[in-house]
Specification:
about 210 residues, two-stranded antiparallel sheet
Length: about 210
Amino acid sequence: MAVVTSRSAQVLAQKLQLEGIKDSRVLSAIAQTPRHLFVEPVLAHKAYENTALPIGLGQTISQPYIVARMTELLLQGGSCGKVLEIGTGSGYQTAILARLFSHVCTVERIKSLQFQAKRRLQQQDLHNVSMKHGDGWQGWLTKAPFDSIIVTAAPNDVPQALLEQLTDGGRLVIPVGSEQQVLRVYQRQAEQWHSQDIETVRFVPLVPGDLA
């Protein structure tokens, strides 16, 4: 089974390269990460398709292309230092980040999802991750500043707290909007933030607050 699933992850990375993902570091991380471990067993047969899948509680594991694209955009900022992830979810995006950045700080508002993600990351021997149960809108002030921030759910407006928790030169990759969403990159330069719209996307809403 290990050989089969390893091969499946490698094939997925090859598909994503054909879809336009160019960064070899991202493709390598995708090829090393067993996505079937981050979905419910009943959906494991779909784990290596390039599609989003439900993980319960109204949340999803993002389409692999989007995971790879957002990660690639982060790395284009030039830093592989400390990254903040808002929305741990299944832990799959977290696992990809942990293979590429020196340290990952990740915030999840739903306690049960955080618990499951922690167990999965431990199974992968990914120990450069700090996890917090809390409100993603607030970021993680005591761990700030961050070289990079990635948000895996869409607010209508970008939380100011996240922009302010970037280092000078740091970048935020975030989907923005409700009915019509766009993937946007913010780059901080002193007290200014320059933005660029990348492509249309579809994410669950970024909900304020946290749940037990």
